[in-house]
Specification:
Blueprint: H1 8-16, H2 22-26, H3 37-53, H4 55-59, H5 68-73, H6 77-84, E1 89-94, H7 101-106, E2 110-117, H8 120-133, E3 138-142, H9 145-152, E4 158-161, E5 164-165, E6 179-180, H10 183-191, E7 196-201, H11 207-213, E8 217-225, E9 228-237, E10 245-251, E11 256-262, E12 277-281, H12 283-288, H13 294-297, E13 301-302, E14 310-312, E15 320-330, H14 333-339, E16 344-350, H15 356-363, E17 366-377, E18 383-390
């Protein structure tokens, strides 16, 4: 770890350039001839990344950052806080500690947290940052997590794992067996040290594929931050063989939208033509696959089996975007020329044969404005366009 970064002069420079143009800054002469200018610039870049994603780190003095890629790949504070709400107990061991954001939040709920990190430099950085936060219940150990588990030889209430995809797995379908550590192969080993395991994966992993590789899964959580899916969480319990709960959560700026259902539960949705209001599920629900269950839990009907858009005569509280339908048009040349050609509109396609790009080009529709257009297919298999006003 580069402790010279902690000098008051360099820290003041890093903080004062929180909003600097890094391209221009890189062309300047090194203001600290005895220090590595590239490392200083990397600290500024990483700190800029942390401003909205990791505000606690950004606002705390004397924090040292790893490369900006590590900051990009780490959990956000909001998702870290969400994960901490799923655990309880006395001790947790994080086998893939990384920058330590999740452990910062685990430590608020667990008496003792062990942060394992195979990269010795990153482990030292996390240990230093923990001291700046004045956290006393996180222990950093550098090394291979499998060997650390063997050496400690102690039970934990929880094991947490965020496996990384192997470099030679690029281009392949994302499978857990292609990650390090190889969780499917090591599950029995892990259950020897804890009855509860939480696994974080990238949202690109298909839920059905993940369930086919894992066992004893109790729940799967699809987590979105401001309507962008960031991660999947897999909760495993030793010897569990009951029904699997699929939960989705969209962490919006001022609210949290939650939705859950049982995996494999055969839901029969109800369908109808467009009514007064249109509802579009948030990204976390879209990832969870609970499309048919929505009509059972909310007073809405579905436009089409594959459209994943919903409608109702009355406005209801809904986990996603809400629109008022101003007009429902048959998709044809006459209607497009009359209502949308050469106009400005926000366009979404759902179960429609043309792309947004093609629609814009074909009908000369510019982006933006207050009109929201959904190009979709109704329950009678007709191609339609819904002209809407956004309410939420």
């Amino acid at each position: 770890m580069d402790k010279w970064l902690l000098s008051a002069e360099i820290q003041e420079f890093i903080i004062s350039n929180a909003n600097a143009d890094l391209t221009k800054l890189a062309l300047q002469k090194n203001k600290f001839p005895n220090a590595d200018w590239t490392i200083i610039l990397n600290q500024i870049a990483a700190r800029q990344k942390a401003k909205t994603k990791l505000p606690t780190w950004f606002e705390t003095p004397n924090i040292i950052y790893p490369g900006k890629i590590s900051v990009e790949q780490t959990s956000s504070e909001k998702t870290g806080e969400y994960k901490s709400g799923l655990i309880s107990g006395n001790n947790l061991i994080d086998l893939t500690g990384g920058f330590g954001v999740d452990d910062y939040y685990f430590a608020k709920k667990i008496n003792h947290v062990i942060h394992c990190e195979i990269n010795a430099e990153l482990s030292a950085i996390v240990s230093h940052n923990i001291e700046q936060f004045k956290i006393r219940n996180i222990q950093c150990i550098s090394g291979d997590s499998t060997e650390i588990l063997k050496d400690l030889n102690q039970k934990s209430d929880w094991i947490y794992i965020d496996p990384s995809r192997r470099n030679d797995a690029k281009g392949k379908v994302f499978m857990l067996k292609d990650c390090l550590p190889n969780v499917p192969d090591l599950l029995d080993f892990y259950f020897g040290f804890s009855s509860n395991i939480m696994i974080k994966t990238a949202p690109i992993l298909d839920i059905a594929a993940g369930l086919s590789e894992l066992k004893n899964v109790k729940s799967v959580h699809s987590i979105a931050l401001e309507n962008e899916v960031k991660e999947l969480l897999w909760i495993l319990e030793k010897d569990y063989s009951g029904k699997i709960q699929i939960a989705s959560c969209n962490l919006a700026k001022d609210s949290t939208e939650e939705f859950s259902f049982e995996y494999g539960n055969l839901s029969i949705p109800s369908y109808s033509l467009p009514k007064k209001y249109l509802f579009e599920p948030n990204a976390a629900i879209m990832k969870s696959g609970g499309f048919d269950e929505i009509t059972n839990q909310f007073e809405v009907t579905k436009l089409h089996q594959h459209s994943h858009l919903y409608t109702s005569e009355k406005r209801i509280a809904f986990p996603g975007r809400v629109f008022e339908i101003e007009q429902c048009l048959e998709y044809n040349k006459a209607n497009m020329k009359a209502f949308l050609e050469n106009k400005k509109a926000n366009i979404t396609t759902r179960n429609f044969p043309e792309t947004v790009e093609n629609i814009r080009k074909k009908w000369k529709i510019s982006d933006g404005g207050n009109c929201y257009c959904f190009f979709t297919t109704d329950t009678n298999n007709n191609k339609i366009v819904l002209l809407c006003t956004k309410l939420k």
